[in-house]
């Protein structure tokens, strides 16, 4: 059983009863689910994941005002629930990570995820937050949210970046993909600079994954799950997943360059198909300027700088 399924069944067995019997006056104001950090929230957990921050547990989210009224009582009631369920548990929390489950004010939860006390309100705030933090803020599953406040934040974030931010990032990836894969890997290999070549390959893979998520309007998750997560994306997901696997297994540099160019061609054709570029060049750097020129925000569009 994976952690997300375990959490939902555990909530159905114990969480619902706890709310209905002990907090019936507030049952319409309590959201529950499992969202945030950890492989279980992505559905990527396995037996290796179970040594820490895994096991029976779920999140209960309330407003700041409600937390002041009954938050402590709700926390104590949650802490009294059985520590094991269906042979799993007790949950072993890493030091400082106990907040991954239990009772949390909605604003506090999202502030922990993104460093913001409200959904991003402007382009500067959208750019300030690392992308994987947005991914963590909207992953997992909400089991119930009768008040709708938790889901209101989630819906705003899931709606994705403003288009100008997406264009800025796509233009940046055109630059960095060309720099790392089409330029630096080739030159470092010719010079037999093994570290430089391998670092360029890693940078290229990371940037091609980032580009694929951008084209799908999905937030790129934490680095160790990016390759696995890309496989399910409808636009280029399976192809990029398979080609990166082949690239990383290849030992012949000529073959590695072929895999790099195959992925670059796929990105190029997608940019053309979505009218983000009309350039015919196979060097992805040549597409960056046209993508960048579509940005409407003068502050973002004045200078073509690379952003993460």
Give the mean pLDDT: 96
Question: What does the overall shape look like?
Answer: elongated
The SSE string, one letter per element, is HEEHEHHHEHHHHHHHH
Give the biggest sheet: 4 strands, mixed
Strand content: 5-15%
Range of helix content: 55-70%
Q: Total helix count?
A: 13
Question: What is this structure, in a nutshell?
Answer:
This protein is mainly α. The protein has helices at 3-22, 64-79, 106-114, 123-128, 131-137, 149-158, 163-190, 194-215, 223-230, 237-249, 253-273, 285-293, 298-301; strands spanning 31-34, 59-62, 102-105, 141-144. Helix 2 (64-79) links the parallel strand 2 (59-62) and strand 3.
Key structural traits:
single chain, 308 residues, mainly alpha, four-stranded mixed beta sheet, 13 helices, 4 strands, 56% helix, 5% strand, elongated
Describe this structure in words.
This protein has helices spanning 3-22, 64-79, 106-114, 123-128, 131-137, 149-158, 163-190, 194-215, 223-230, 237-249, 253-273, 285-293, 298-301; strands spanning 31-34, 59-62, 102-105, 141-144. The protein has 308 residues and is mainly α. The protein starts with a helix and ends in a 7-residue tail after the last helix. α2 links the parallel β2 and β3. Helices cover 56% and strands 5% of the residues.
Walk me through the topology.
Blueprint: H1 3-22, E1 31-34, E2 59-62, H2 64-79, E3 102-105, H3 106-114, H4 123-128, H5 131-137, E4 141-144, H6 149-158, H7 163-190, H8 194-215, H9 223-230, H10 237-249, H11 253-273, H12 285-293, H13 298-301
């Amino acid at each position: 059983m994976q952690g997300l399924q375990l959490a939902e069944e555990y909530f159905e067995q114990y969480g619902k009863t706890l709310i209905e019997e002990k907090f019936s006056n507030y049952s319409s104001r309590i959201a529950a689910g499992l969202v945030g950090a950890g492989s279980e929230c992505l559905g990527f957990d396995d037996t290796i994941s179970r040594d820490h921050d895994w096991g029976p547990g779920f999140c209960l989210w309330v407003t700041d005002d409600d937390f002041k009224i009954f938050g402590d009582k709700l926390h104590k009631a949650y802490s009294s629930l059985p520590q094991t369920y269906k042979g799993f548990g007790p949950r072993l929390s890493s030091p400082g990570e106990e907040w991954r489950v239990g009772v949390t004010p909605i604003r506090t939860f999202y502030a922990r995820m993104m460093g913001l006390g409200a959904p991003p309100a402007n382009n500067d705030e959208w750019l300030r937050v690392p992308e994987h933090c947005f991914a963590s803020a909207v992953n997992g599953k909400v089991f119930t949210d009768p008040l709708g406040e938790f889901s209101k934040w989630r819906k705003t974030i899931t709606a994705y970046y403003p288009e100008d931010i997406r264009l800025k990032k796509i233009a940046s990836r055109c630059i960095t993909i060309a720099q790392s894969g089409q330029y630096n890997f080739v030159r470092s290999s010719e010079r037999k600079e093994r570290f430089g070549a391998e670092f360029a390959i890693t940078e290229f893979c990371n940037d091609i994954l980032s580009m694929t998520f951008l084209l799908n309007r999905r937030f790129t998750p934490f680095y160790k799950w990016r390759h696995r997560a890309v496989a399910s994306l409808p636009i280029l997901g399976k192809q990029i997943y398979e080609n990166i696997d082949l690239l990383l297994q290849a030992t012949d540099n000529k073959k590695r360059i072929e895999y790099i160019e195959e992925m670059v061609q796929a990105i190029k054709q997608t940019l053309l198909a979505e009218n983000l570029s009309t350039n015919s060049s196979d060097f992805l750097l040549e597409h960056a300027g046209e993508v960048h020129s579509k940005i409407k925000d003068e502050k973002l569009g004045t200078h073509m700088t690379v952003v993460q």
